[in-house]
């Protein structure tokens, strides 16, 4: 057990968790203004995952609770793609594009928000 924690501490101290991570500020500097403030993407295109919240709750109740506390679209019997859509709408500029491959049902809270 102690070896496990020593391994975790080593990985944290040596930033192993970020070894293959994407640093978007470096990869996409155009989303920042001259002062380094985030201004948003011009477009986000993707194919978000499809998973019902019931499946997430069965496997990881704490994660499902976290989603419910962070996303306004996490209401009722929702699908994970709705959360990806909400996040994308937060990440783009005011007059930008979000284009996902997805069904339309379940996005009423996002569409009403405008």
Describe this structure as you would to a colleague:
With 114 residues, this protein is an alpha+beta fold. The protein has one domain (2-108). It is built from 6 helices and 2 strands, in the order ααβαααβα. Strands 1-2 form a two-stranded parallel sheet. Helix 3 (53-59) packs across helix 4. The radius of gyration is 18 Å and the shape is flat. The chain starts with a helix and ends with a helix.
**Sheet of most strands:** 2 strands, parallel
Let me know the number of strands: 2
The assigned structural class equals alpha+beta
The sequence of SSEs as H and E is HHEHHHEH
Strand order of the largest sheet: 1-2
Q: Quaternary arrangement of the chains shown?
A: single chain
Calculate Rg over CA atoms: 18 Å
Q: In which range does the helix fraction lie?
A: 40-55%
Overall 3D form: flat
Low-confidence spans: none
Strand proportion, as a percent range, falls in: 5-15%
């Amino acid at each position: 057990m102690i070896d496990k924690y020593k391994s975790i501490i080593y990985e944290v101290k040596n930033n192993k968790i970020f070894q293959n991570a994407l640093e978007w500020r470096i990869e996409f500097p155009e989303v920042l203004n001259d002062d380094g403030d985030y201004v948003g993407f011009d477009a986000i295109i993707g194919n978000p995952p499809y998973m019902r919240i019931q499946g997430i709750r069965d496997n990881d109740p704490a994660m499902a609770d976290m989603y419910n506390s962070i996303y306004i679209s996490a209401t009722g019997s929702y699908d994970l793609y709705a959360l990806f859509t909400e996040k994308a709408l937060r990440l783009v500029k005011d007059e930008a594009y979000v284009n996902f491959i997805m069904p339309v049902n379940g996005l009423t809270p996002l569409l009403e928000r405008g």
